[in-house]
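Thread amino acids onto this structure.
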């Protein structure tokens, strides 16, 4: 099992959700976060004064995936989020030792 964490642009969330559903992955956790990478934010003007916006709004998606579905999940996320412009985001893949369904106490892939 793997834990996939994707940091994406907010307006891409529905596309990612739909793309993952098409490959049979429906459960995920979504968090609104702020951050920056190479784009390093931008400057804005508010009431005539210029200010720097260092941290840009992003969406963090986390999902546990059985090993046999990892490649399809990564392809779905990448295809749904790629614009070809800086700031498209990042995907992190980590090993997931165990998953436990609290209600029943079940362990492993069947919980996903």
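Threaded sequence (112 positions):
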């Amino acid at each position: 099992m793997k834990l996939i964490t994707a940091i994406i642009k907010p307006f891409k969330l529905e596309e990612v959700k739909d793309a993952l559903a098409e490959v049979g992955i429906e459960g995920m956790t979504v968090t609104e976060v702020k951050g920056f990478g190479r784009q390093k934010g931008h400057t804005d003007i508010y009431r005539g004064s210029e200010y720097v916006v260092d941290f840009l709004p992003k969406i963090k998606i986390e999902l546990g995936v059985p090993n046999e579905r990892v490649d399809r999940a990564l392809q779905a996320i990448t295809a749904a989020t790629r614009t070809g412009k800086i700031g498209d985001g990042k995907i992190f893949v980590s090993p997931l030792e165990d998953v436990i369904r609290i209600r029943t106490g079940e362990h492993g892939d069947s919980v996903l």
